[in-house]
Amino acid sequence: MPFDEPWWKSSVIYQIYPRSFCDTDGDGIGDLDGVRRHLDHLTWLGVDGLWLSPVFPSPMADFGYDVADYCDVDPVFGDLAAMDSLIGEAHDRGLRVLLDWVPNHTSDRHPWFQAARTSRDAALRDFYMWRDPAPGGGPPNNWRAAFGGDAWTFDDATGQYYLHCFLPEQPDLQWANPEVEAAMHDTLRFWIDRGVDGFRMDVIHLIGKDPALPDDPDDLVELTHVPLNHRPETHPLLRRLRTLLDDAGDRMAVGEVYLLDTAQVAEYYGDDDELHLCFNFPPLFAPWSASAWRSQIRRTEAELGPRGAWPTWVLSNHDNRRHRTRYGTDAAARAAAVLLLTLRGTPFLYAGEELGLQDGTIAPDRVVDPGGRDGCRCPIPWDDSPTHGWATEDPWLPWPPEADVRSVDRLRQDPESILWLYRELLALRRHSRSLRAGTLELLDVGNDDVLAYRRQADGDAARLVLVHMATTDEVRVAGCAGEVECSSAVPGRRGAFDGVLAPGEAVVLRAG
């Protein structure tokens, strides 16, 4: 069924953490050929595009978010030829490709920083944010870095501090310098010319900073500076980025705007002239309860709606515990799939959630991530062999729990598995204008444990979505009539809805 909306509104994007997707060369680290070999899984599943977490050359202090070269591929993942093959084969299958672009900071090994730190008079000195010590010594202000400690490191060779909102190995770029902006625009053009369809823009709200660099409030400083940096300087930078993407034709940007106030996040859409999409993070921290989710939906609709901004929804990603782990049961994970794929907005799936994967347990000697996020990054099991479809039995992180029974091949053999539920939901969404582009109206069905809403678009039957978020007893709901198109708890449930939901069941109804 054709849609008039931009592709990024009606798509479902599948996030791939390449290190953990599939290894083809035996080094235990996933690579681009591993992604390419499993593109058929994405098309079978029914997603519309894929987002690759960073694959640029990097010392891997923050596993790719410390970029040493924006215009190449790290050898651990392959090379530019492998990337070109992946993009081409993805496009052949009708899949869009998004890259993770890291604009706020580089690696300290990037040639720009290596040149900048040679002297105070270096040609690229102003590519980064250098300041003299505070009067009396010490860092220039009280900003805290995301992984702990001061956001400033003293450089002995030049006698100044440089700013890093993350690790010392990740110095912040100075976007107030037009040469930085131009150089970073060139990196986007490099990938656009290779066929990339869009970019996930890492902590994009950080690129504009108060030039006075004032202290953060004492009562908020332990939050770190990242969620506190909400500055007007960012918005003209975003408008120029948007112009670049628009001029390139049909490209998109989704921003990681790590501000927990949705009204502030909404500002980064601009007047449809800044980011196309912004990630909506509060749901990542919401409990599995109907009241909490009603609040999340109301707030998102109320604060994005006046701008005409299109929401995003995400339940898991590479920075947070998987929702199967957070919610605690397989029933909740299955119901959450119904929720994610029927809300108004663009859903982002994290590779492995369609398998119902949980976080792995990482022994202290296997912990490698500076932020302790290893558990949600465990490798994807493709089959139930000792290597799980990888080129080694011993990947860079341990296998997730139940890797044998949660493998792609095993779950594909079971039409009642969570993998088939995701496929069913994605097909249902693809063929329903109401689910992909319609309005959303919250409903009162007479039970506080049931989240209910109606999706409606012209030219398509309305859909009613009912999500029972309690797991103890079945419940009866009022005023909901229609044909059952999908059930999270009763595979194959069809026919007229009888008003009863099983414990933890979510259903999609086609309204009569």
Measured as a percent range, the helix fraction is 10-25%
The number of distinct β-strands equals: 19
* Main sheet specs: 8 strands, parallel
- CA(first)-CA(last) distance: 20 Å
SS summary, helix count: 14
How much of the polypeptide forms β-strand, as a percent range?
Answer: 5-15%
Topology, please?
Elements: H1 7-10, E1 13-16, H2 32-37, H3 39-45, E2 49-52, H4 80-92, E3 96-101, H5 111-116, E4 130-131, E5 152-155, E6 160-163, H6 178-193, E7 198-201, H7 234-248, E8 252-255, H8 262-266, E9 277-278, H9 290-304, E10 312-314, H10 323-327, H11 330-340, E11 346-350, H12 408-412, H13 418-430, H14 433-437, E12 439-442, E13 450-456, E14 463-468, E15 475-476, E16 483-487, E17 495-496, E18 500-501, E19 506-510
Parallel strand pairs: 1-2, 1-11, 2-3, 3-7, 7-8, 8-9, 10-11
Antiparallel strand pairs: 4-6, 5-6, 12-13, 13-14, 14-19, 15-18, 16-17, 16-19
Helix pairs in contact: 6-7, 11-13
